[in-house]
Specification:
Pathway: Carbohydrate metabolism; hexose metabolism; Carbohydrate degradation; glycolysis; D-glyceraldehyde 3-phosphate and glycerone phosphate from D-glucose: step 1/4. One of its GO terms (molecular function) is glucokinase activity. The chain is of the alpha/beta class. The strands form four sheets. The chain has a six-stranded mixed β-sheet, with helices on both faces. Strands 4-3-2-5-8 form a five-stranded mixed β-sheet. A two-stranded antiparallel ribbon has the order 6-7. Helix 2 packs across helix 11, helix 3 packs across helix 4 and helix 9 packs across helix 11. 44% of the residues are buried.
């Protein structure tokens, strides 16, 4: 072989060797990157762990905070608001009642006809209306005048369709899902607006009185018989359908709970005249906090970057507003530690780019090779060519977030049962009848619970684990649909009947 040939051979060998070294180096780097991504997941799993022992600590903390909130205003992170609802629908209600549910960008009107037989709603009609954007930040008078005129038009239209004209004063249940200081069953002052509302002259005003004045101005003979939030409405409908219902929970975009409390246990309202020995308490449990909650650095970061920092700590760990973004934050950390998402991972820096419904779709993807997850990662997070192995890692992150949220929500529910003696931990005082636990029903509403089967299954599993095999079969978690509407009308009916 000549010198030139020998040189070429040596050169080729060097190049081939270099290529091999680069390939080996890339494989090593890839394996190291994957190991770092897995390490992020393992660390997150450990931080989110919710063994039964920890859940029982959350149960105890919830019960303690409930006691403190009932003792004094400001005594607890739980506001434990009086609702003045001291009688729940019992099935004897008769007549026609209306409900007005003020939501975010819309409101709706319902007409409910009751026949006096439990669980029989003779007619249920509702209609949605959009609130003009300019009224969301105008004046309280302008907003309520619009509500009253729209309500009048719908009522008159309904009367014409029935061929009847009714001039009697109609009873209205008003669902107002904003923080209120309740003054009576039919009155309450606004503490602050949430969502997109920003009407400055409304704070401190009695919203039921404002609506009443607007109704008078419109010429509609209707009065507010019950002013409630959506959680209390869910409890009312749940009790109407099943008299063993003692609490209600909403787990959707946001979360809250209410329950029936003995009036002698409400220390902060001793001496208050009521018509019974019980009252519904609106917990505002989204603000619950305890050192026993498994908080991770991702939760701290989410709270630091939220407009309501240090508030709604429980809600930020269990509600649909936040779960998808917790997943996004974990995936972002993985992308910073590895290259498993490629060069487009910067899109993960966008807050709330991953909604909870999309997270749920990836989590419950049953297609071969996780094609649904692949599509969502591409279309929503702009991550192309994510490997099957990486997609499985994403699904696992979704599972960890969902499982923690559901199990914490379960602990909150059992905390309520513990407070009212329905958790089986204290003999007769624990809701036992002749040695057997009482049947207890919790009404639940909200898309996260109703529509997300994995979340629901994790929650049921945790409730059973905490309560134990003797008590758990006597606790029923029951889906209750449209308490915010029908429940408000039922409360108007029950308190009209009471009067």
């Amino acid at each position: 072989m000549g010198r030139v040939g020998l040189g070429l051979a040596v050169g080729c060998a060097v190049v081939a060797s270099g290529i091999a070294v680069v390939a080996v180096w890339r494989r090593v780097r890839s394996r190291r990157g994957w190991a770092r991504a897995v390490a992020v997941l393992k660390e997150f799993e450990e931080g989110c762990a919710t063994p039964v022992s920890r859940l029982r600590q959350v149960v105890d903390a919830m019960a303690v905070e409930m006691h403190a909130g009932l003792a004094s205003d400001g005594g607890s992170k739980l506001r434990m608001l009086l609702t003045f609802v001291d009688a729940l629908p019992n099935g004897n209600e008769k007549g026609t009642y209306y409900a007005l549910h003020l939501g975010g960008a819309n409101f709706r009107v319902l007409k409910v006809e009751l026949g006096g037989t439990r669980s029989t709603i003779m007619k249920h009609h509702d209609e949605y209306q959009i609130i003009p954007q300019d009224l969301v930040a105008s004046t309280i008078e302008g907003l309520f005048d619009f509500l009253a005129m729209t309500l009048k038009r719908l009522v008159e239209k309904d009367d014409e369709g029935s061929g009847q004209s009714d001039d009697t004063i109609k009873e209205l249940g008003f669902t107002f899902p904003f923080p209120l200081k309740q003054l009576s069953i039919s009155s309450g002052t606004l503490v602050k607006w949430t969502k997109e509302f920003a009407i400055e002259d409304a704070n401190g005003k009695d919203v039921a009185q404002c609506l009443h004045e607007a109704l008078i101005k419109s010429g509609l003979e209707m009065q507010v018989a019950a002013l409630v939030n959506d959680t209390v409405g869910t409890l009312a409908l749940g009790h109407y359908e099943d008299e063993d219902t003692v609490a209600a929970v909403i787990i959707g975009t946001g979360t809250n709970a209410c329950y029936v409390e003995r009036t002698d246990a409400i220390i902060k309202c001793q001496g208050l005249l009521t018509n019974s020995d019980e009252m519904v308490i609106n917990m505002e449990w989204g603000n619950f906090w305890s050192s026993h909650l498994p908080r991770t650095p991702y939760d701290f970061d989410l709270d630091d970057e939220s407009p309501n920092q240090y508030d709604q700590g429980f809600e930020k760990m269990i509600s649909g507003m936040y779960l998808g973004d917790i997943v996004r934050r974990v995936l972002l950390r993985m992308s910073q530690q590895s290259d498993i998402f490629g060069e487009s991972a910067h899109h993960l820096s966008t807050p709330f780019i991953l909604s909870t419904p999309l997270m749920a779709s990836m989590h419950e993807d049953s297609t071969p090779d996780l094609k649904v997850a692949e599509r969502i990662l591409l279309d929503e997070l702009k991550l192309p060519n994510v490997s099957l192995k990486a997609r499985r890692l994403v699904v696992r992150v979704c599972d960890v977030v969902t499982q923690r949220a559901a199990r914490l929500a379960a602990a909150g529910i059992v905390g309520i049962l513990k407070k009212i003696g329905r958790d089986g931990s204290g003999g007769v005082a624990s809701g036992r009848v002749r040695g057997k636990p009482k049947r207890t029903v919790v009404a639940i509403e909200g898309a996260l619970y109703v529509s997300y089967s994995s979340f629901r299954e994790y929650l049921h599993e945790a409730v059973a684990e905490i309560l134990g095999e003797e008590v758990a079969p006597n606790v029923v978690l029951r889906v209750t649909e449209d308490g915010s509407g029908v429940g408000a009308a039922l409360l108007a009916a029950s308190h009209s009947l009471q009067r």
